[in-house]
Every structure is written in structure tokens, then in C-alpha cells.
Amino acid sequence: MMDSLKGRMRLIRLWLDQQRSCPAWHQLITKSSGWRLLHLEREIDGGKDTINNLTMLHRIVIGSRVPSESQ
Questions:
Q1: Which domain holds residue 9?
Q2: Helix (H, G, I), strand (E, B) or coil at 56
Q3: For labeling, which of 6, 47, 49, 58 is most exposed (least CB within 10 Å)?
Q4: Region class of 63: left (phi > 0), else alpha (psi between -120 and 50), else beta
Q5: Eight-class DSSP state of 2
Q6: 47 lies in some domain
Q7: How many folded domains does the chain comprise?
Q8: Position 24 in a domain
Q9: Structural domain includes residue 9
Q10: CA-CA distances (angstroms) from residue 71 to 25, 35, 52, 59, 64?
Q11: 63 falls within a domain
């Protein structure tokens, strides 16, 4: 996605729509912290590859336990 101008603009839009933060950890996503894109509904299950079906998470969130809201 970073290879094209359209892909970069899509990443920036998603990042800004999320207020520059990870929705799981509520911490800022920066170039140094890194990120991963996750489809909310998997493409194999019929999800689209659109901005509305994507979320940007910290790299460490994928495959780890997300903190609960009560903590």
C-alpha cells in the first residue's frame, strides 16, 4: 500500500480518521512504533478492501491480548 501515492493517501486518511491512535491500546501510532492493517471483516468472508473495512493497529496488538476496557 505504501508503494503508490493512492495507497499512501489511504493510509494517512485511515490514520487521521483514527485520531492517529491504535483503537486497541489507545496510544499514538508513529513511524517508530509501527503498525499493521487489519480487515474488520476478512476478505475471504466477503469483506471489502475499503477504508471502512480497515483498521490500523500497533504491530504488537496482532496476536496479543488486547487490554480490557476495565483496566
A1: 5-57
A2: strand
A3: 6
A4: left
A5: T
A6: yes
A7: 1
A8: yes
A9: yes
A10: 11, 23, 28, 21, 16
A11: no
Q: How many CA atoms lie within 13 A of 40 on its CB side?
A: 10
Closest among 44, 56, 71 to 12, alpha carbons compared: 56
Cα distances (angstroms) measured from residue 40 to each of 4, 47, 70: 23, 8, 23
CA 13 to chain centre: 11
| Residues across the chain | 71
Q: Which three cell numbers stand for residue 34?
A: 509501527
Per-residue pLDDT of the chain (71 residues; tens, 9 = 90+): 667 899 899 999 999 999 999 998 899 999 898 899 999 999 999 999 999 999 999 887 766 655 544 44
Q: 45: which DSSP letter?
A: G
| E strand map for 1-71 | 36-39, 54-57
